[in-house]
């Protein structure tokens, strides 16, 4: 190919239309010690829930290592005169699963479940219980990677589980949470109040099967809703033993730019 033909070809390529896709990337890995997971089951129609949520988010976290998942349950939607727009049946099912693991006959709001175990007296015992859990060595390691192309979040996770029983009974769950979600409640026990929800679970994914060898690689893709504030989103991964309910380890990955 002579020089003139090369110039013509380059000119042709430069004239072709092209697009550049912006790609955001994040990654995080869990630590060697246990990161506690607090699952708060709540509802906008529940009169006792706002004080519980305010109390939780006023706690000092400097010396404690924990992740919060705020699940809005749907079973109060037809009882309290207000339909919680953030409630989903899958969140209520999560609470029912934890109740069975704890051998409880009833579910209620607000309920605090810490690393798989119900914590009824949360005001008195929360900080001490989290501190106690943080002293334990983690029974799993989790590495999270996430890429965002347009509105598609590609998730790549690697988990390493220790112990034969843990490997037999453990599963991986993924959650997408959002902070600073404002909501005006017009009915029910909290009529007239405006909430500023934190750690609001938007998506709950799993359980994902883990390999008996202890090491598992999982890829998953999630479409982000346009109504979600991307700079307020976090991706959470937890590994839980579904025989005894204990959460082996967790990691949280803020999706901030």
Could you explain the architecture of this structure?
The chain is 21% helix and 39% strand. Strands 1-6-7-12 form a 4-stranded antiparallel β-sheet, with no helix packed on it. A 4-stranded mixed β-sheet has the order 3-2-4-5, sandwiched between helices. A 4-stranded antiparallel β-sheet has the order 11-8-13-14. The protein is globular. The termini are far apart. About 2% of the residues have low confidence.
How do the strands and helices of this protein lay out in sequence?
Layout: H1 3-15, E1 23-29, E2 36-42, H2 49-57, E3 66-72, H3 89-101, E4 111-114, E5 117-118, H4 122-134, E6 140-149, E7 152-161, H5 164-169, E8 170-178, E9 181-184, E10 194-197, E11 200-209, E12 215-223, E13 233-241, E14 247-254
Parallel strand pairs: 2-3
Antiparallel strand pairs: 1-6, 2-4, 4-5, 6-7, 7-12, 8-11, 8-13, 9-10, 13-14
Largest sheet: 4 strands, antiparallel
Q: Could you list the spans in which at least 5 consecutive residues all have pLDDT below 50?
A: 16-20
Total number of β-strand segments? 14
List the strand order in the largest sheet. Answer: 1-6-7-12
Mean pLDDT score: 92
Query: Radius of gyration in whole Å, from Cα?
Result: 22 Å
């Amino acid at each position: 190919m002579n020089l003139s033909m090369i110039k013509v070809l380059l000119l042709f390529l430069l004239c072709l239309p092209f697009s550049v896709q912006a790609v955001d990337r994040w990654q995080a890995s869990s630590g060697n010690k246990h990161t506690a997971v607090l699952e708060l089951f709540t509802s906008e129609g529940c009169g006792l829930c706002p004080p519980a949520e305010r109390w939780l988010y006023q706690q000092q976290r400097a010396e404690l290592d924990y992740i919060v998942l705020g699940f809005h349950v749907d079973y109060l939607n037809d009882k309290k005169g207000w339909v919680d727009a953030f409630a989903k049946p899958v969140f209520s099912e999560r609470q029912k699963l934890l109740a069975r693991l704890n051998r409880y006959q009833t579910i209620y709001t607000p309920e605090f479940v810490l690393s798989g175990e119900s914590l009824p007296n949360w005001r008195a015992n929360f900080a001490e219980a989290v501190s106690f859990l943080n002293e334990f060595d983690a029974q799993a390691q989790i590495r999270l990677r996430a890429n965002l192309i347009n509105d598609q979040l590609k998730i790549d996770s690697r988990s390493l589980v220790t112990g034969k029983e843990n490997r037999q009974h453990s599963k991986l769950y993924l959650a997408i949470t959002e902070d600073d979600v404002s909501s005006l409640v017009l009915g029910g026990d909290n009529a007239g109040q405006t909430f500023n929800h934190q750690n609001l679970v938007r998506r709950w994914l799993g359980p994902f099967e883990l390999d008996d060898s202890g090491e598992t690689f999982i890829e998953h893709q999630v479409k982000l809703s346009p109504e979600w504030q991307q700079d307020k989103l976090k991706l959470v991964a937890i590994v839980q033993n579904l025989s005894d309910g204990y959460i082996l380890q967790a990691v949280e990955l803020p999706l901030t730019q």
